[in-house]
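Researcher: We're reviewing a set of sequences before deciding which ones to prioritize for further study. For each one, I'd like a predicted 3D structure that I can look through quickly. This is Deoxynucleoside kinase domain-containing protein. If possible, include the structure in token form so it fits the rest of the review sheet.
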Amino acid sequence: MRLYSHQQRLSKHFCVWLNTRCNIHTSHLSALSSRIIPRMSIQDRARQSLDIAKTALKVKAHTPGQPNYVVSVEGNIGSGKTVMLNYFSNTNNCEIHTEPVHKWRDIQGHNALDLMYQNPERWGITLQTYIQLTMLQIHKQPQEKPVRLMERSIFSAKYCFVENLFKSGKMPEIEYIILTEWFDWIIKTQNLQIDLIVYLRTDPEVLYSRIMKRCRHEEKGIPLDYLKALHHLHEDWLVHKKFPCPAEVLIIDANSALDKMPEFYEQHRSRIVQTAFC
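Model: Here's the predicted structure for Deoxynucleoside kinase domain-containing protein, in token form for your review sheet.
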């Protein structure tokens, strides 16, 4: 009972956090704050989470005349997501939302991203909890232009990065269960519109070469095996559909040099930014 009491306290603190930071009404949070994580095997819990997601996420084609269109640009570390967003940043009636990495690097002076890379067993849950919050904030932010392009989503955070931490043994089962509980509640109760996923599919060896060249501080110790593991999870989610997809998937081969990629983006412009809006 001590464990479940602690989990309830964590859930209540998280509800206050969601209410103050994401402006989610307290009436929607009451169910979460009072829940006790059920006793079930991790395999059953994973199946339950997938069932919840499949029910909550129904792939629907964009309806002509719908006021907003949302595109999530997905891909492994170094796949060229920022390059693609920069390419479309000057498109009329199109707004760009990059990953809030600046927030993850500076939580009142603490660099959670760097801490996670240094010691994922200790800091994985901390970073992923904050990522789940900050990505939710982007999803819920009012859309000012007809087309929104966002770098990654709350879904890739869960189905790729959280899953990798757990499957690699770097996230304890209880932390994985708690994060999954919060994720399931979010997708059941919140409208997280995505109309298209663009998957920048890139070989891990190409990613590793790019990462070594760009020399970001937090990424300097990333091994090739880590990129391979994330690649397999992206494939499981976006190609093999082992996890639910909130939208149709457009796959772009992103193995070419980054300065050559705009010609591939241009080939799919009408689908990516819905030319009728722009």
